[in-house]
């Protein structure tokens, strides 16, 4: 088990799986809990769940946390709360197809950000790998008919999702600056920061009269999101970035729509088509190419 948990490919694949479930859960939440309240409840439950395990580490490393409090708060506010709020809000205005395509721009944002800040140039194989995964994503979200992509119309939700992708891409790049904290202390502090910053968003939602309190269905979505996409995925993602760097780690995000399609078959009863398998092969091939490139020229930082 320890060997499995030390494998970055396994860790980052699990992240993509959990985030694929997040996309479905976010769509299922529409009409059952409002997006800003969903974000707040997500991080409230996440803090409650991890607190018993993390507080010891937080006390041990409090000096480091206090010295880096502003940075850690911004990580939680923008990378966690900001991204989630925009993501769930976008799903109220646009389709899951559009959101999936726009989320796939994150690796390109990370490549660009790492080049600007750290002069890390993606290799030719990484760019080819990125192109293959993006092509696989396009096949998935277009249901095997790429001409359908030309029919997608950008709206308010698409603009919100593009901003969300920009926020999370920036968060991934700036994780290089994070202090040397135990993962439990790190995720706890970021979750608390996300919770505190999301309260303001929830307040504005309440004042606008758009707050929708969760019913039983909505609470089920909240609990799933708090445990899997929040605690587990975010912890594994931070560890994955530590192990392989942002360029390689972020490429695995392109597995999200593939896993999302598979989960839609299992949970929503949709039909699995041949193009899903083709897309999965393309995405995996793209990741393997990027991994091969990284092994030949490790990312340093």
UniProtKB/TrEMBL annotation:
<keyword id="KW-0812">Transmembrane</keyword>
<feature type="transmembrane region" description="Helical">
    <location>
        <begin position="41"/>
        <end position="58"/>
    </location>
</feature>
<feature type="transmembrane region" description="Helical">
    <location>
        <begin position="154"/>
        <end position="173"/>
    </location>
</feature>
<feature type="transmembrane region" description="Helical">
    <location>
        <begin position="274"/>
        <end position="290"/>
    </location>
</feature>
<dbReference type="InterPro" id="IPR000620">
    <property type="entry name" value="EamA_dom"/>
</dbReference>
<feature type="transmembrane region" description="Helical">
    <location>
        <begin position="97"/>
        <end position="117"/>
    </location>
</feature>
<feature type="domain" description="EamA">
    <location>
        <begin position="156"/>
        <end position="289"/>
    </location>
</feature>
<keyword id="KW-0472">Membrane</keyword>
<feature type="transmembrane region" description="Helical">
    <location>
        <begin position="70"/>
        <end position="91"/>
    </location>
</feature>
<feature type="transmembrane region" description="Helical">
    <location>
        <begin position="124"/>
        <end position="142"/>
    </location>
</feature>
<feature type="transmembrane region" description="Helical">
    <location>
        <begin position="185"/>
        <end position="204"/>
    </location>
</feature>
<protein>
    <submittedName>
        <fullName>DMT family transporter</fullName>
    </submittedName>
</protein>
<keyword id="KW-1133">Transmembrane helix</keyword>
<dbReference type="Pfam" id="PF00892">
    <property type="entry name" value="EamA"/>
</dbReference>
<keyword id="KW-1003">Cell membrane</keyword>
<feature type="transmembrane region" description="Helical">
    <location>
        <begin position="249"/>
        <end position="268"/>
    </location>
</feature>
<feature type="transmembrane region" description="Helical">
    <location>
        <begin position="216"/>
        <end position="237"/>
    </location>
</feature>
<dbReference type="InterPro" id="IPR050638">
    <property type="entry name" value="AA-Vitamin_Transporters"/>
</dbReference>
<feature type="domain" description="EamA">
    <location>
        <begin position="9"/>
        <end position="141"/>
    </location>
</feature>
């Amino acid at each position: 088990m320890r060997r499995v948990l030390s494998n970055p490919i396994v860790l980052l694949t699990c992240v993509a799986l959990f985030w694929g479930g997040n996309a479905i859960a976010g769509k299922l939440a529409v009409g059952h809990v409002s997006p800003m309240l969903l974000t707040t409840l997500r991080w409230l439950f996440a803090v409650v769940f991890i607190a018993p395990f993390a507080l010891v580490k937080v006390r041990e490393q409090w000096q480091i946390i206090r010295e880096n409090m502003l940075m850690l708060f911004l990580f939680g506010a923008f990378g966690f709360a900001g991204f989630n709020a925009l993501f769930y809000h976008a799903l109220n205005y646009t389709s899951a197809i559009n959101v999936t395509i726009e989320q796939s721009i994150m690796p390109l944002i990370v490549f660009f950000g790492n080049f600007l800040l750290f002069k890390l140039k993606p290799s030719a194989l990484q760019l080819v790998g990125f192109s293959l995964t993006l092509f696989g994503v396009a096949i998935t979200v277009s249901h095997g008919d790429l001409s359908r992509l030309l029919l997608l119309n950008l709206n308010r939700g698409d603009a919100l999702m593009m901003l969300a992708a920009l926020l999370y891409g920036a968060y991934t790049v700036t994780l290089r600056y994070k202090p040397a904290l135990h993962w439990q202390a790190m995720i706890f502090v970021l979750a608390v920061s996300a919770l505190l910053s999301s309260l303001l968003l929830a307040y504005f939602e309440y004042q606008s009269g758009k707050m929708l309190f969760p019913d039983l269905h909505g609470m089920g979505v909240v609990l799933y999101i708090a445990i899997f996409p929040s605690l587990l995925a975010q912890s594994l993602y931070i560890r994955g970035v530590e192990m392989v760097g942002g360029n390689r780690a972020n490429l695995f995000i392109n597995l999200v729509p593939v896993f999302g399609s598979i989960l839609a078959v299992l949970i929503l009863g949709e039909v699995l088509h041949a193009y899903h398998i083709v897309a999965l092969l393309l995405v995996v091939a793209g990741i393997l190419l990027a991994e091969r490139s990284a092994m030949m020229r490790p990312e340093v930082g």
